[in-house]
Write a structure and sequence with these properties.
6-stranded mixed beta sheet, Aminopeptidase, binds zinc ion
């Protein structure tokens, strides 16, 4: 399997941040892009380091539209690619939602979501993982490859946020995703 890795949002995409959790200067503790990018970059590095093919389609700081992400995916898609979009979740209420989840739309996406959920759970993913859920997101609907969208955890829940901010979590999550994708 050759992953096409997407990191979801640009650094300044509005609203994609740990609303309600700020540092002493009033700055948000986490912008979603920075954790998505950290894990996605490490994941694509692991493929390169092990001489495995992968595509990383969103290394810009500026916002890339969903249509452009889909366009890039469709250009790269082949019989053995999968699409994985990496995110961190937000909920309008603080400290009310926790854990990660894989989303899918197609039947082939569902199988990958279930396998990756099991793999991460069995191998010590640091946050709880809910059962995969079907969603009609554009990047799931319009991409050509079997597609999953991974929400790693909630930026708006302090216990999840503390984990999302750790380099150790980011390194381990990239390694788990690498091993999980290799096991598909
Ligand atoms: Zn997101």
């Amino acid at each position: 399997m050759i992953p096409i890795i997407d990191t979801g949002h640009g650094f300044n995409t509005p609203g994609k941040r740990s609303d309600g959790f700020v540092d002493g200067n009033g700055r948000v503790l986490l912008k979603e892009n920075s954790v998505n990018e950290a894990v996605g970059n490490k994941l694509s590095f692991l493929f390169w380091h092990n001489d495995d093919e992968a595509h990383f389609i969103s290394n810009e700081w500026i916002d890339i539209s969903l249509s452009e992400r889909v366009r890039r995916e469709r250009e790269l898609a082949s019989n053995n690619t999968i699409f994985i979009s990496i995110h961190a979740d937000a909920f309008h209420l603080k400290n009310q939602a926790r854990g990660g989840r894989f989303f899918y739309r197609s039947e082939s996406g569902r199988k990958i979501a279930e396998k990756l959920t099991k793999f991460l759970k069995d191998n010590g993913y640091q946050l709880s993982l809910r059962v995969p859920m079907r969603e009609n997101f554009k990047v799931l609907r319009e991409t050509k490859s079997p597609a999953v969208l991974f929400e790693m955890g909630f930026m708006t829940t302090k216990s999840d946020l503390d984990v999302l901010l750790e380099d150790d979590f980011r390194n381990k999550t990239a390694q788990l995703l690498y091993d999980g994708i290799k096991s598909l």
